[in-house]
């Protein structure tokens, strides 16, 4: 890995910067989202969510913990859970990316102020956590299973990496390096043979190595990845699989246990594999993720079926009721899929990212950017209550969008993803650019040989299916690859050569582009039936409707009192278009009530015909209390 | 309520003794199980389980906690969770019942020794809990939500009630009265306006009032029941419904929240309603239970679908995968159903008890009585591991039968139910006896007017469906009512008048009985298809097979390598008899694997014909690691 200068990344900063791989990511100065679906969400994120998160962290004392810790004494007043430091770091990372997207003096000052507070809490030896190690606090690293110390350090490092890439090395990078050095000193080859119960330090250390050129961080990340799976974490009732600690990373066949933990670990393993040229490790993780997609992922791209341990279920255990599908698992799956996309060039990882963005990330955030789903169920049987704007939700997990949670990881996690989202749209290789996500965006970069390339993309996707790409820069001919999603049977492209069909599931290639060339991709946006693998017991006999990349759902506010759970759809008629949703027909009929719900045969149900409006799943629970279902039983 | 003398109950002791109601329960001296399905399980319970539980409680220090507490000082060495005292009390209750079933000098000495230990730990003011109130411990009643103090007192009282009824008042009753007096002093009309996060004190205090004639205990139980539902428990992330504290008992429509909590509370509410003549309260609880049976109960009678909070799900949310169906919820539902049976005389409550006994209680216990299911899933996708006999299972919940759990409520709970099971078989009214459960048993009692009545019942039920009842005592003619289960279409009875059909779901009546009369009930035991209410999403498109009161299941050990989850049964052919199980036919075929489990249409699956053996669900996981499913998808 070449040593990298510590000035700002000339690309404007990118979330992941592998030293090798099939695709090169572009930075925030190279890709700018300037409108449309994601442009408005970025505006809400920058204009409301970041401030909202900061206000809650101040109110709850999570930022204040750093000031308290500065005294060197543990305070009985330390506020929040043992991982609250990480929320402050995630917010700092989000602010760092947001400054790359849109400079702002006030926000710049805020980040510097937070950096000073964090620095002041750092121990002389580099250790940094507000909850451990001072008089009156628990000893450092006394609870590797649930202490979240290395997890917090990981998020500190990620914030520093974002900052350094966007703005150049500053004191936050110093703080992160000293904290990382302390981690390496403590957990190095001759140190404590342990791992953190919550992975995150692994990808963070590789990214820090990429920014600093310091090999030691990569080696430590590799050590953590290889140590995992040997049951070094003390036995706990959740079991070792919860921590992905029951089986070595390279021996596992599928992601399991706590979903966010598993996905962060896998991301770190890909980072290690890429930087060390360990193709065996890369292939192992890719195979695990592929199997997870094939057997343990909701239609929405949501991962982690279980509430009890926020964990993946067994293969094909994907109940719509109380689907957990944690928002953070969506963010983490984007992290992993992006790394695999860069490493392998496989467009299927962009398909997954698109699915998660439109159906998990976009679902989680409220219109005003000030409340969030923690979990993203696919079936709501009782109307969601409304949570007051000043109410902190205790604990975590299910329920309605809430302004804040006692465990509030999801909110700053989405914020950092949205602020850096431009970095996930387009990649480059030696021959040109690859468009992975469709959005109003402008791209300007140079290929490896120095040639300028650029494009302007315009679309009202996903409301509409037309995407126009105009070439804005070309020092000689280059090739554009436009992703054609696997659902897009019937897609066409129009270019200099005219209009033609393109097969779904593989990129459409446009070689020899010159400035002024315009390409139009027309994706079929008719709503379509989707049936589940028969091994998914929980939705047997059901269909869903998708439209483009968007999963649709039935919501009670559209049903004039009809009970959604009494709906049976008629799949002989295709779903009809209805704005950005669809209409399906069928019958509504509630079975007669009896004293016992099991019988030799069920009594006949009288049904009346019904037309049911379906809306994008990401828009549900925005029009007052409602019930909802994605999977619709067939007649 | 009449004052009751404090000598032993001449009936030999009964678990519930209401002062009024449609049916009078019989005691352990009046009904004796002397063989058959339950006889062998009682023998295992008395011969292995009680000793096993005692050994674990000694090994883990739960019994020793009482000795440590005797010093009056909190010890940092206090062992176990905050509710471990209650396990010792449940064991004492089980031993007390077992002594009623079968006197044993060693066991008698053991109970006296435990009583002395418990008494020694009681504070001078009557308060008794080993984890609170001493120097170095948390203050008394400082955590009503999760402290389990009143819960533990409730189980102490239940143990004392059992002991007093079986053997007469002894020092355990003194201890319990002093503890109950302290509860009344603390939480009485002018005391702390609070309730315990875990109900149990409510039925216990009513039972203590019944034993002692002391009205104060009934009044305190009534206070606790009426206080519940007003959110007096501090806000917690599990929500008030978890504690049934979000809505008053008499206003609720269905049981909700933590299943065991809800069922214990409802049992206490019935006890209060019966003793105070509060028919409104009785009807409210009966309606809640009826609705719970109709919408929130598994085919097995299991209750509580959720792992995360051990709670009832919404109506019709009854996933087979990871069905929680806690063993303790089965015991608690028997408690509630029995109270409602005594109060109302409705045979449907005996139907429920039968279902739970054969499909939850009998399932939980291993053949040797030394390991237990905590949760009783209806679908096991990966083979159950074997737990070593010396391994304590951390925490609680799912997984295989284990010899012990960190939270080991289920094991002594089943033990106390099995030891007192004879008390749940038969009741009396003014005209005769009602047989609710079929078992090898002898009954001898007197009716209210003093007439002796008796019978001897012989059956190999549920392996066979023939039940023979011979009248063994009759001072003049009396009437026998034999429950005919609702599934028993085609049942016949044979008596003096010959053989005739009887309708299912209502008792068959035999008046004017005399000594020597013999009645034969023939229940149809052909296995039968059972289909679920279409609102139970999780098992749509599936059938189950039941045989008599027993739910059957497919288990992989019978399938020679075929994947149970690939089975599709053909319901055009009725299930064939196969011993106490059944055989069904269908096809086995695993769908081809793809990268994504959702598609426009699913690829065709090649299947091969298969005959699948089904065995009683209560026998699963006894022949080595296996997968299992109760609900079978149809072709």
Which helices and strands occur, and which strands form pairs?
2 copies of one chain form a homodimer.
Chain A: E1 24-25, E2 31-33, H1 36-59, H2 64-70, H3 84-101, H4 105-120, H5 149-167, H6 171-187, H7 201-212, H8 215-227, H9 259-276, H10 279-295, H11 327-344, H12 348-364, E3 379-380, E4 392-393, E5 404-405, H13 410-419, E6 426-429, E7 432-435, E8 441-446, E9 452-459, E10 466-474, E11 478-482, E12 492-495, E13 498-501, E14 508-513, E15 518-522, E16 528-532, E17 542-547, E18 550-555, E19 567-569, E20 576-578, E21 581-588, E22 598-599, E23 608-616, E24 628-629, E25 632-633
Parallel strand pairs in A: 4-5, 7-11
Antiparallel strand pairs in A: 1-6, 2-8, 3-24, 6-7, 8-9, 9-10, 10-15, 11-14, 12-13, 12-15, 16-17, 17-18, 17-25, 18-23, 18-24, 19-21, 20-21, 21-23
Helix pairs in contact in A: 1-3, 1-13, 2-4, 3-4, 3-5, 3-13, 5-6, 5-7, 7-8, 7-9, 8-9, 9-10, 9-11, 11-12
What does this structure look like?
Chain A is of the alpha+beta class and 635 residues long. Chain A is built from 13 helices and 25 strands. In chain A, strands 3, 16, 17, 18, 19, 20, 21, 23, 24 and 25 form a ten-stranded antiparallel β-sheet that branches. In chain A, strands 2-8-9-10-15-12-13 form a seven-stranded antiparallel β-sheet. In chain A, strands 1-6-7-11-14 form a five-stranded mixed β-sheet, with no helix packed on it. Residues 1-5 of chain A have low confidence and may be disordered. Strand 22 of chain A pairs antiparallel with strand 16 of chain B, so a sheet runs across the interface.
